[in-house]
Amino acid sequence: xxxxxxxxxxxxxxxxxxxxxxxxxxxxxxxxxxxxxxxxxxxxxxxxxxxxxxxxxxxxxxxxxxxxxxxxxxxxxxxxxxxxxxxxxxxxxxxxxxxxxxxxxxxxxxxxxxxxxxxxxxxxxxxxxxxxxxxxxxxxxxxxxxxxxxxxxxxxxxxxxxxxxxxxxxxxxxxxxxxxxxxxxxxxxxxxxxxxxxxxxxxxxxxxxxxxxxxxxxxxxxxxxxxxxxxxxxxxxxxxxxxxxxxxxxxxxxxxxxxxxxxxxxxxxxxxxxxxxxxxxxxxxxxxxxxxxxxxxxxxxxxxxxxxxxxxxxxxxxxxxxxxxxxxxxxxxxxxxxxxxxxxxxxxxxxxxxxxxxxxxxxxxxxxxxxxxxxxxxxxxxxxxxxxxxxxxxxxxxxxxxxxxxxxxxxxxxxxxxxxxxxxxxxxxxxxxxxxxxxxxxxxxxxxxxxxxxxxxxxxxxxxxxxxxxxxxxxxxxxxxxxxxxxxxxxxxxxxxxxxxxxxxxxxxxxxxxxxxxxxxxxxxxxxxxxxxxxxxxxxxxxxxxxxxxxxxxxxxxxxxxxxxxxxxxxxxxxxxxxxxxxxxxxxxxxxxxxxxxxxxxxxxxxxxxxxxxxxxxxxxxxxxxxxxxxxxxxxx
Amino acid sequence: xxxxxxxxxxxxxxxxxxxxxxxxxxxxxxxxxxxxxxxxxxxxxxxxxxxxxxxxxxxxxxxxxxxxxxxxxxxxxxxxxxxxxxxxxxxxxxxxxxxxxxxxxxxxxxxxxxxxxxxxxxxxxxxxxxxxxxxxxxxxxxxxxxxxxxxxxxxxxxxxxxxxxxxxxxxxxxxxxxxxxxxxxxxxxxxxxxxxxxxxxxxxxxxxxxxxxxxxxxxxxxxxxxxxxxxxxxxxxxxxxxxxxxxxxxxxxxxxxxxxxxxxxxxxxxxxxxxxxxxxxxxxxxxxxxxxxxxxxxxxxxxxxxxxxxxxxxxxxxxxxxxxxxxxxxxxxxxxxxxxxxxxxxxxxxxxxxxxxxxxxxxxxxxxxxxxxxxxxxxxxxxxxxxxxxxxxxxxxxxxxxxxxxxxxxxxxxxxxxxxxxxxxxxxxxxxxxxxxxxxxxxxxxxxxxxxxxxxxxxxxxxxxxxxxxxxxxxxxxxxxxxxxxxxxxxxxxxxxxxxxxxxxxxxxxxxxxxxxxxxxxxxxxxxx
Lengths: 637, 529
Hints:
The complex is a heterodimer of chains A (637) and B (529). Chain A has 637 residues and is mostly beta strands. Chain A contains six helices and 35 strands. Chain A has a five-stranded mixed beta sheet, with no helix packed on it. Chain A starts with a strand and ends in a 7-residue tail after the last strand. With 529 residues, chain B is mainly beta. Chain B contains three helices and 36 strands. Chain B has a five-stranded mixed beta sheet with strand order 1-30-31-32-33, with no helix packed on it. Chain B has a five-stranded mixed beta sheet with strand order 25-26-28-29-27, with no helix packed on it. Chain B has a four-stranded antiparallel beta sheet with strand order 2-36-35-34, with no helix packed on it. The longest helix of chain B is centred in the first third of the chain and has 18 residues, at 2-19. The radius of gyration of chain B is 22 Å and the shape is globular. Chains A and B meet through α1, α2, β8, β9 and β12 of A and β14, β17, β18, β20 and α2 of B. β8 of chain A pairs antiparallel with β14 (215-219) of chain B, so a sheet runs across the interface.
């Protein structure tokens, strides 16, 4: 009998639609300012950007869009945070604007999906107290850092059914579908043969091949967090924990169990999952919980900070959001503030420094403790200045601290694992990098760092928020090849068997520090059983480099073009003396220049609006123009 | 005297042939142009006098959001009651209804028996089950017509249009419970294509050769092939249709989000003969912007064109002699976006069916109905509105400096989701579906009535969308200027989903979700019925 059958290999593609769709909505994400809770500014896994890819042509401006936001002093656009899979397929960046604006921008096209403006009276802007929105938005981010992974695969078409093909029936026999494997296809009838059940083998397999392959747990005992991508399920970024993204996992409609404060219930994931929310603070101090698809206040705005405070980039973990304040703007105390996102009345608590202001952003240690740098200032009894503190996020009580009266911190602390230790790194005004043991800041006397580097600044001051860190990924031993599933007799084979999954092991840990005119890269090495810093590379000269970010071993650095502030200089003076920013891509291992944006950017970079996701790097310039650089990835026609 | 009477009778009977035309297949012809070339009654001058001639509520049970499909019209059918102009309407619940066009009276009703036990998931608008393909009609002889339909059980039905009786036993054709689209009949072969993987049925082209009774299928390894008018068949016998939901990678034999051409070989097996992948095919896939529109085969000034589009909402002008050029990804012309600036996968873009026609001067026109707002950068010399809910855009197919292109000509009034376009007598008929075309749950703020809603998730099901339906509207436009000449206003009281539009012999037909067929028309010349 010559009648051929249509293999379920093809049908895998059919039922696999759901899986594919979610993968289609995925990609690397940037859920909070500086990328993650540890403020590393590092995207571990990205499908498009790599040193090899950047060495070839194709990385270029994809789009730009002018956002009508009025700067306040030099404060313009905030750092974007991203949400993939909004309304299933749209990757968004959610960008704050200093004049109480929020923009939702399609990362593929630059299309402004929605924008919000919060009405509130704004005080006069000063350098210390610019007023308006002073930070980025945030989404919920996992405490555990994302897993390392090897190069991601591109997906491929195998999941849709093993290649085109045809068949012809014997006269009068029609086309018959052979059934084998899993559950019923869409619309499958009860009792009908399970016709399209190989979704996991087809679509899911293809999706997972890249996304989750080679994931290894981060050091420090945190669980592996690559499950979202590994199975081709979930809308979150590969390598991001399933919970990341403010409830991107489950629920629907009035219920959305993954979103704090939303009623539990709803469908358990899949296409029905809500697109999640983003958290935005307005200048009146209210916390807004905005729906990613619409920008609507999904939850009642809740009072959080004193109006017109100067707050740093918030971070949201589990069911709480944290932000630090400084400069006593709006009479807000210098403090770390917490708001309970799950409670209907959203209670607020805080830990006041009774001394200096919070420098940069609050980081979250891998152990879940809040880590913050405190700047100079008069400290009352029991108060803190020039310190690094550890705060219990549940009780908002001080747990530990490092202080040295002669050490003024000027950067957000960043946290990373090295060996069996979790390390806090921060920059000091005199140009040193201090490494602290996250489990015992400053040791028994609270003033002993694990390591203090020599001054890298050459006497020049650092700007706050300057550090970034990443770790090389080295190939590991091949993983065992999973046994192939037996095929039904006579069924066509889907394709070649899956290759063994690549594994990776952690390599050298790098710290990146922008100095006055370069990016300096330091290696974290062991010295006498303690971590220390070793000179790595120094970049070419940049004009006022800002905090770099790292994507798959590529360091993106901005020559900001922002003129130095001088005594008595007004914002207008600085703007006038500034020059257009230039974005550079450097090889993270040796600092070699891979690419530059040249003269594409026509305004200077004030210092905040710089992030990456989905194979693109975004730069928000002072004039409100947002630039997206990346590989075309067929976005443009 | 008797001879004279006979002559008069013959003359009277022959009068209708002066204005008669059939509408035997979705999209008018195998090329799916939507152009009723031989329409003799409708003109731009008389269409403004169109009115509702009749409407009939058919006992068709909706399935999900589907109910009635666009009628097919045969003008002179020999029936037991004499010669009749018959509209045959397919209902999704395995029904065929025949209606006497003259008065809207039912002639017969056939409900298919089935080998499929039924069931399936409920609430899935994408997979309604039942009969989902618009049938097609073949001429079996003078006054004799055969309806070809695919019932829910996947069998091919051959039904006498005159009386609704089988003219041949049901034939095994394709797997049951799928979602085939409008049938096409060319040279004794029935063509269709399926989508959404409904019931586990592969997304593929299907053919049935009536002579050999051989069925064939070709799987492009893409997603669904869900052009509203099914596969277009070119004069060369190649079946073309767009694909969705998969990568476009010929190296891995994956032809998702492209346009695929297949042709029967000597053994009556469909074989791949050509394919086209838009330059951004894989991005279209990532955004779920399927190539969801039946392309049109147009022969014009010695060139063989294929015109396609998709949810993305731009037009591709292709050469059928080398689809996509040497690399299969190069068009003769690609227009800028017409709509869907947001590049949303639902509720925007082109979802219905395009039309192609030539005016008396020989100008070749391409008319494109679309959903949602017109793109802010699209402009036409004549604009009757800047549509927000949808509309129709017209292009001229022109050769400039040796290159062919589609040049914008006019933009219609605003429409509530413009669907298919049919051109007859210089009139462009279009209808607004009025359905709830959203497929994701919308956010609702905490202080909106009903309270907060966390939106963004897929919600394409019927339960939510059916209550959101509005009403369909039939529009008649001057096909050269786009000016509206007539509209049904609010006369149609229900909406429709994935249905169609039929125009023949001075009458236009729309079926709606509530099971009603509306017939609008203008007075026929003396001797007409």
